[in-house]
Design brief:
The complex is a heterodimer of chains A (408) and B (346). Chain A has 408 residues and is α/β, with parallel strands linked by helices. Chain A has eight helices and 22 strands. In chain A, strand 2, helix 2 and strand 3 form a beta-alpha-beta unit. Chain B has one domain. Chain B contains 20 helices and no strands. Classes of the chains: A alpha/beta (408), B mainly alpha (346). The interface between A and B is medium-sized, with 22 and 22 residues.
């Protein structure tokens, strides 16, 4: 093969993008991996644990980060977005924009900047439920492991406290954004997913109660490095809820919201229920579902849940949630098997919201649900959740396939 | 039909065996007897929440409305009256029947011609003939309606053998009275507030007109008719006309402009709505024509009478019949203590 071949561009540094990049590099090709957040790992790094072995995200990501570090063929840029892709297979021109790098790569993450920083920002890693300083480490296992300054909240040179205190001269508060133009041979689109905006499901009242959270938020609620720090707390009164309800198909399989099945939410809620049971064996959990769609290995979760006396599976879609005076939640459903309406009072309700493809501002062929189709310009390869909803292990198989396509 | 969302978002569905999911399943399976002999289709006030929130674009509200329409024909006595009101192709016949009846009465009264002189409708249709034929028709219609209702009641009993009927029919009927008068079920429909207001206007407008008509008949018998413009009953009649006009206009406009929430209105629905609208408009015009001595007053009066007869004799077979069927279905529910079923189980 031609040794002067241009590198492959991988857009998106979540677990699929990282896997694609590593696999391309490990067969001897050059890769450029870009990520819009200041750290790699995407959605998975925010999870408490993930399928199928319920490992913490550190488990699968750490080894990949090491492979990235060791491999000189991978160039990665965080806080970077793609502005434009033009050209054809073997000869694409990509225009990238990197946000101002106020903290340089020689940061040792000593944390002195955050200590002196007077400004606060909502912590997007915890979906805004906690706060950090404007100079912050995105999370404990951030890769690259360095501090970041939030443009929106930092007062820059007017404050300058962090720059004064930094022993390594790693802070440059006058940094500007950078535009790069690169030539690449092919483009892998691993832009992944976000969860559906639960506030659009007006009958479930997500916006009006602190004790109604989404399934991705729940991951941060239950994670040991998350909102409650080793405790599952509900936000209205910071108590530990003992009656928890899961609302399946919150927006999915619903023509008014997402007409498709998001494929992972059933398994996710079963996983969540088992995690709660481990932490609080006496808690009472109800899962309201239309159908329990768990397949393959994940069926083991279902078997486990079915033998657990504290977890009840209720066939019936929740159509209404109302908050009581003591901030509990009344969930209403028709129990399909008995034909009776159920009103269940829970202390915390978790909406199993579905998967929506993330936006990307370059023109790609999409289906009616905004997922990317396989029919793209030759050399542009969508992968994993940018194509359709799938779990991590399926995404990784898809990533291997995308890597193979990208080096052809 | 496997999620039950419709039964939950419905503010009127009872706790036990809620609607409309079970009706949707029956409809899917073609179980006509169950659907027709089912009080629940009448408990629905067509707010459309079930259709709005259905995740699969099924329209339970439209299905229930269609079942109600089939019920009018199913229980129609005599059958042919139900049939001629079921489709636009029979509309000419449906109009012809009141025309023939009125012409026949006028012929018998010997006044089937346009009178001379200032407008005096009693010269065209003598009060005695008008009032007696109106009263007879009114009671005949109610009688035929009751025959249909009796079959409906028996079907509800047959389809729900496990339910025990307690209390007298009339006691249970009157226990619904307050609910109907206050339109409290309507208030529970969260989807469209304008519907309640429009229905209140039409409902009370119509009741007022019935009261005024009854007084007019009394006045005619005691030779005080026609009433002067400022007679309290005359004023009341005009107020009722305005109420009907506003209510009906809102109903028509909403049906045309807000298909999303109102579903597709059926022929029976439109037939009732338009005939009521024409009745109201023609009534006001006829009154004006009398005061202003218009030359076409008698023709207008004839048209107005057709509207009146059309609505009265077809009451049990058009949308108007919901007045009877819903009241009876609500009474059935009271009789079997359906409202309290949950409390008993708890």
């Amino acid at each position: 093969m031609n040794k002067t071949q241009k590198p492959v561009l991988v857009i998106g540094g979540g677990i699929s993008g990282v896997t694609t990049a590593v696999e391309i590099a490990e067969v001897g090709k050059e890769v450029i991996l870009i990520e819009k957040e200041p750290y790699l790992g995407g959605n998975v790094v925010k999870f408490n644990n993930y399928f199928p072995k319920l490992c913490p995200p550190t488990c699968g990501l750490e080894i990949n980060f090491r492979r990235i570090k060791q491999n000189p063929r991978i160039n990665y840029f965080t806080s970077t977005e793609v502005l434009e892709i033009a050209g054809e297979k073997g000869n694409f021109k990509a225009k990238l924009k990197t946000a101002p790098q106020y903290i340089k790569n020689n940061c040792t993450a000593c944390g002195k900047c955050a200590k002196v920083c007077p400004e606060e920002r909502p912590n997007d890693f915890n979906y805004g439920f906690t706060k950090t300083k404007a100079a912050y480490l995105p999370h404990e296992m951030a890769f690259p492991y360095k501090y970041v300054i939030d443009d929106e909240f930092c007062k820059k040179e007017a404050c300058n406290k962090c720059a004064e205190v930094c022993e390594y001269d790693a802070i440059n508060l006058s940094a500007k954004e950078e535009i790069k133009e690169l030539e690449v041979s092919s483009v892998v689109v691993a832009t992944g997913w976000k969860n559906y905006d639960a506030s659009k499901i007006d009958n479930l009242n997500y916006s009006s109660s602190k004790n109604i959270i989404t399934n991705v938020e729940f991951e941060r609620f239950i994670a040991s490095n998350g909102v409650g720090e080793n405790k599952l707390l509900r936000l209205s009164d910071n108590t530990e809820p003992k009656k928890i309800a899961f609302v399946q198909c919150a927006g999915s399989r619903d023509e008014n919201h997402l007409p498709y099945c998001s494929a992972v939410c059933c398994s996710a809620s079963l996983k969540h229920a088992l995690t709660i049971q481990e932490l609080y064996p006496k808690s009472e959990i109800k899962i309201f579902y239309i159908d329990l769609r768990v397949s393959g290995r994940n069926e083991d979760f279902l078997a486990k849940v079915q033998t657990n006396k504290n977890i009840e599976l209720v066939k019936g879609k929740v159509g209404k949630i109302t908050e009581t005076e003591n901030n509990n939640l009344i969930l209403e459903a028709e129990d399909i098997l008995s034909g009776k309406k159920i009103k269940y009072e829970a202390e915390l309700a978790v909406l199993a919201t579905g998967i929506v493809p993330s936006n990307i501002n370059i023109k790609l062929n999409k289906d009616s649900n905004q997922f990317m189709t396989d029919a793209q310009t030759e050399g542009i390869i969508p992968v994993a959740c940018s194509r359709k909803p799938m779990d991590v292990s399926t995404s990784l198989k898809d990533a291997t396939g995308a890597a193979l396509k990208a080096i052809q | 039909m496997q999620c039950g969302n419709c039964s939950v978002v419905c503010s009127l569905a009872p706790e036990n065996k809620p609607f409309p999911r079970k009706e949707m399943i029956w409809a899917g399976w073609g179980m006509k007897d169950k659907l027709i002999g089912n009080p629940d289709v009448w408990l629905c006030h067509q707010c459309g929440d079930c259709s709005t929130y259905c995740p699969r674009g099924v329209k339970p509200a439209d299905i229930l409305s269609a079942v109600r329409e089939v019920s009018y024909q199913h229980y129609a006595k005599p059958k042919f009256l139900g049939k001629i009101l079921s489709s636009p192709k029979w509309l000419p016949a449906a109009i012809l029947i009141p025309v023939i009846i009125i012409s026949a009465i006028l012929y018998l009264a010997g006044t089937l011609q346009i009178p001379e002189g200032p407008v005096n409708y009693s010269k065209f249709f003598p009060h005695a003939w008008l009032n007696s034929s109106f009263t007879i028709l009114w009671f005949l219609t109610i009688g035929l309606g009751v025959l249909g209702l009796r079959n409906f009641w028996n079907d509800m009993k047959k389809q729900n053998p496990e339910l025990k009927i307690t209390g007298s029919f009339f006691k249970n009927l009157f226990s619904n009275f307050k609910e109907i008068m206050q339109h409290s079920n309507f208030s529970k429909c969260s989807n469209q507030k304008s519907r309640k207001i429009a229905h209140v206007l039409v409902f009370y407008g119509f009741i007022l007109l019935l009261i005024v008509t009854a007084f007019a008949i009394y006045a005619a018998v005691t030779h005080q008719y026609p009433l002067g413009l400022f007679n309290p009953f005359k004023v009341l009649g005009n107020v009722a006309a305005v109420m009907l006009f506003i209510g009906l206009t809102v109903m028509i406009i909403k049906r045309v402009t807000d298909k999303e929430n109102y579903g597709n209105s059926s022929y029976a629905d439109w037939l009732f709505l338009i005939s009521m609208f024409l009745l109201t408009i023609s009534g006001v015009i006829v009154e004006t024509a009398r005061f202003l001595n218009w030359s076409i007053a008698y023709h207008l009066y004839f048209f107005h009478l057709i509207c009146v007869w059309f609505i009265i004799i077809y009451l049990p077979y058009t949308k108007f019949g919901h007045l009877l069927y819903r009241a009876v279905a609500m009474t059935f529910d009271k009789s079997v203590n359906r409202d309290y079923s949950k409390k008993n189980e708890d």
